[in-house]
User: Fold these one by one.
Assistant:
Number 1:
Amino acid sequence: AQSVTQLDSHVSVSEGTPVLLRCNYSSSYSPSLFWYVQHPNKGLQLLLKYTSAATLVKGINGFEAEFKKSETSFHLTKPSAHMSDAAEYFCVVSEIGGADGLTFGKGTHLIIQP
Amino acid sequence: DGGITQSPKYLFRKEGQNVTLSCEQNLNHDAMYWYRQDPGQGLRLIYYSQIVNDFQKGDIAEGYSVSREKKESFPLTVTSAQKNPTAFYLCASSPRGVQRVYNEQFFGPGTRLTVL
């Protein structure tokens, strides 16, 4: 079985400061991990994905995430927040070779203060 | 442009009525999915289909039905048996079936259903 926990339901940062959105996962097999972003009343857009290649994954819009197996974490970071980053972010786990499909975290709402 | 389209964007339903949400993809993907999104609850899987004329229940299938007569289409019917249908509904597709590696999914823009 697989599960994912997003540790913060809301994160607020000032424009131009770093962003950290935390995600821990549980998986019986080798996981694939994803971060998706959702702007209000829109569908989900893939930011980045980890699929057992490099542990540091770079995505779109300056975001990156690091897969840490020992900590079962896949935190999302960005060096400098922009107002357009304000959105809901979902951490998602899928097991390679597993049968459970995708499991979504409950989401982190990112607020950018001017 | 390749992508997933959902219609309508907003839908209003009276209690006791069935409504059908449309989902079409031109990505040539085998698998398609329906999710329900409620505030603070992430996405919950309603139904999924890995191949034409076959589909499986997800975690919250009660009160919903689907069909997969064509590869590019996966309509969702919200029946009167669904107790609390007001939600945001998202359709997705992926290039491989549910049990394959990566399982990256591509999402449509969503349909917001409100029961009056």
Note: The longest strand of chain A covers residues 87-95.
Number 2:
Amino acid sequence: DTEVTQTPKHLVMGMTNKKSLKCEQHMGHRAMYWYKQKAKKPPELMFVYSYEKLSINESVPSRFSPECPNSSLLNLHLHALQPEDSALYLCASSPYWDRGFRAGELFFGEGSRLTVL
Amino acid sequence: QKEVEQNSGPLSVPEGAIASLNCTYSDRGSQSFFWYRQYSGKSPELIMFIYSNGDKEDGRFTAQLNKASQYVSLLIRDSQPSDSATYLCAVNYGGSQGNLIFGKGTKLSVKP
């Protein structure tokens, strides 16, 4: 069982809605990630928080707004999304941030499958 | 542009055979490499990582790295039907920041 918990597992929203995805981990990992994965495509990095600060933003549109309230929790706020934003949103964490070669060892949650109508 | 290339497959092998999955990458400065397994409808899980030239073995899995050729591979010995999944090669371009670029994945099917 994954120790990275994502809610909700499924979300359907209209283009004018505001919703949020939530991710929690209690492993003491200091880096948390949001990835987007479309069907039959690889995961694409969106954001990275390290020590609760935004470290990487991969030029993601402003309709996606990340938030890291504390070291265990990561949110992704969604507003005015487009149908092409429909995808699996994966949260991951890592204890190896800033620790050399193992920095890419990520622990993924089960994902939140988003459908934008 | 940094790229990670994999043969998308599907790669079909009989049960008990060796499955060989290959990956090439574009940035010669990359230092660490990861293989993730992703079952259909599930999230990726780490199988192995490697950062030194040569082979690294873990149970039925062997990762191979050749930095001169910019080539990474994963061998699965005694393949089982439960190994049927998509295997994602990932390259860490972010140094200590864990900024992974994933390949498109190779779909492996192990036939009983």
Note: Residues 5 and 104 of chain B are 7 Å apart (CA to CA).
